[in-house]
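Need a sequence for this fold. Nothing fancy.
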């Protein structure tokens, strides 16, 4: 916050860091990620 970054940009960085920690600890798997992408973002369901 001292560097003047927008709160939105900071939130994106924190969210990415939490995701990567989840991958390292095994809480998030590649299958979870792919399932989320196909469930929420794929066109032509």
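Here you go.
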């Amino acid at each position: 916050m001292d560097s003047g970054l927008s709160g939105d940009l900071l939130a994106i960085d924190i969210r990415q860091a939490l995701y990567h920690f989840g991958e390292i600890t095994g809480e998030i798997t590649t299958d979870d990620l792919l399932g989320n992408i196909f469930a929420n973002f794929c066109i032509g369901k």
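For context: The radius of gyration is 14 Å.
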